[in-house]
Design a protein that fits this description.
Blueprint lengths: L5 H7 L6 E6 L8 E2 L11 H5 L3 E4 L7 H7 L7 H11 L6 H10 L9 E6 L8 E8 L1 H12 L10 E2 L20 E4 L14 E6 H8 L10 H9 L7
Parallel strand pairs: 2-3, 6-7
Antiparallel strand pairs: 1-4, 1-5, 3-4, 5-8, 7-8
């Protein structure tokens, strides 16, 4: 059963709808659907996704070749061409050799059912959820990053990571999707034009989402550091 994020969202004053990444055998359960045209970026559809529609990606329609490679298990961008584009045209690594090492070491998402859905959370589709993304400002981001640390010990896997990758890959680019982990998204400059300059994306695995939803009155959400930050921004006190 999907946990209830009501307290978390209220205390952090997060109003943007949460975005789920699903891998499902039945895409019709997610209507209304968006089918991307060839070459379109996942984040071209941000406003429509936040408005209640769900983007449907598959091996047959994945939009951008990068999403085909990163999310749909399709070799839509040959290795040599990918390296040349990212190094020579975009200058994202110091050399082709470094980029080749990154390409070889990366961990693209491996589809389970073949229908990747990016859209509003669907409580009755919890079994097929792979990650949850929050659209937040920097203050809210600090709250979520603190929350990700709340139940984490020094010997546990890193609760927050910031990997190098395309914006769409960062929706699922975890070391282990079944472990409580989160990542700082929207660090890909190619996709940031599709969101507000003040917006950040914070993406979490299902176990981390469950941990965040456990934050209660004993946590920082109800303590002075957070209330003091809100006060400094001129925001009303939360009950």
């Amino acid at each position: 059963m999907q946990p209830d994020p009501t307290i978390l969202l209220k205390q952090l004053d997060i109003t943007a709808p949460l975005i789920g990444f699903y891998d499902t055998p039945d895409p019709l359960k997610f209507e209304p659907l968006i089918v991307p045209a060839k070459g379109t970026c996942v984040f071209d559809f941000t406003k429509r996704i936040l408005g209640g529609e769900t983007l449907h990606l598959s091996a047959d329609h994945y939009g951008c070749p990068g999403a085909g490679n990163s999310l749909c298990g399709v070799e839509a961008f040959p290795r040599e061409a990918l390296v040349k584009f990212l190094v020579e045209q975009e200058g994202l690594k110091a050399s082709a050799e470094l980029m080749e090492k990154w390409v070889d070491a990366r961990n693209p998402y491996q589809p389970i059912h073949g229908n990747m859905m990016i859209g509003p959370l669907k409580p009755d589709r919890w079994d097929y959820l792979r990650s949850v993304t929050f659209v937040v400002n920097p203050d809210q981001l600090s709250g979520l990053m603190t929350g990700a640390q709340y139940l984490t010990g020094p010997d546990d896997p890193a609760p927050v990571i910031c990997p190098f990758g395309s914006g769409c890959s960062l929706l699922v680019l975890f070391e282990d999707l079944d472990a409580p982990q989160s990542l700082l998204g929207a660090t890909d400059m190619a996709m940031r034009e599709h969101i507000k300059p003040s917006d950040n994306l914070f993406t979490v695995t299902k176990p981390m989402f469950e941990n965040l939803c456990k934050l209660d009155e004993k946590s920082f959400l109800f303590k002075k550091f957070w209330s003091g930050l809100r006060e400094s921004r001129g925001l009303p006190a939360l009950q």
